[in-house]
Design brief:
Helix content is 37%, strand content 23%. By secondary structure, the protein is α/β, with parallel strands linked by helices. The protein folds into 2 domains: 235 residues, Mur-like, catalytic domain (UDP-N-acetylmuramoyl-L-alanine:D-glutamate ligase, 3-Layer(aba) Sandwich), CATH 3.40.1190; 148 residues, Protein-Tyrosine Phosphatase, Chain A, CATH 3.90.190. A hairpin with a 2-residue loop joins strand 2 and strand 3.
Amino acid sequence: MQPDRPTTPPFSGAERFFTIGTTGTNGKTSTTWMHAAILRAWGKPTLVISTLGYAIDETPITDLPRSLSGFYEAFRRALALGIEHAAVEVTSKALAEGYAKRWRFDLGVFTNLSPDHFTTHGSWEHYLASKAQLLVHLGPGRTGVLNAGDEHALLVHQAMPPDVRRRWFHAPTRGEARIAPDLAAASIDVDAHGTRVVLAPSALAERLGPTLQLRMVGDVFAENALAAALAADAAGVPADAIVQGLARCRPVPGRFEVLGTDPIVAVDYAHSADALARTCDVAARLATGRVIVVFGAGGDSTPGKREPMGEAVGARADLVFITNDNPRREEPSAIAEALRRGVERGGRAVAHVELDRARAIDAAIDAARPGDVVVVAGKGHETGQVVGDVELPFCDADEVLRSLGRPR
């Protein structure tokens, strides 16, 4: 039985928008930013809704709550300005609450799936089913863009209505393609200033040209760029606007955000085993010396992912500082111990536990030498540290710059 599809959106202006939604465990925010940058390069002002908040093009909207009422108000304001395009990051929590039925999405993107948010969803199956809702509820003739290298995308594909078109992207860093891709990377080159994607031959690659150049640093952003390019092509965006938009898209705060060079010091939002593995792999490609990682795990959220997180880091880094990351009501030392066991199982890194996150950052930067790469992972753009029921001011980027002796 196919899912019921909404026929009357709750917001009367919804039909006037072309809305691109992006979901998945990792890469949602950067892919959403890429969508918006491409649309701007096409000359289409765009409402952007992501983990970082609301914005019209690159101008933040700071006075709206992160709620359904705030969502609708952002669209009302955009509509009043004559804006008819939107790029929206869609979380599993929102999808589980019926978000895809409440808003008409014209195009959906599924980036990837890895274990996360099981405290919210209760099981892996519910988490996957929630993510799938974005593409399952696309209307007839709409397009879903999926990751050919992610096994879970095949399950989403099977659940999607047959009258929704599928477009597939693939990057070699995720392993073999499980289905023939429409756009793929032949190779990916990364340095401290950006990422270069060499495209495999295809009809779309021929229109885009041999390469895509990004300001974001990391293989995962190459994957996100392929998804954004496919989505834009499905939306009718000319190839030159796709290439220009991706080249102009500025790095997302806290997503492998490089704040220091020689040694390279970066802040990244990675907080799952898959994301940490990919972040460490990028750091290793940039390093001529060691990879040093500062990371922790959130409390009251998916305890089962902690040892795999530690193992992913422990297998790739040389030196690790395990620290706090929003412990909430859990005992920080217990979280750290689970991470330490994982690091030990990884078999490569030397691990230290320093629960004071600022001191851990200082220790990592103090230990770094020219040629090393330091990654402060887990919190990314966040500006608070949740301890108990209190959110204390804390920003990884600010702490890194302080430790480096540089002003923010």
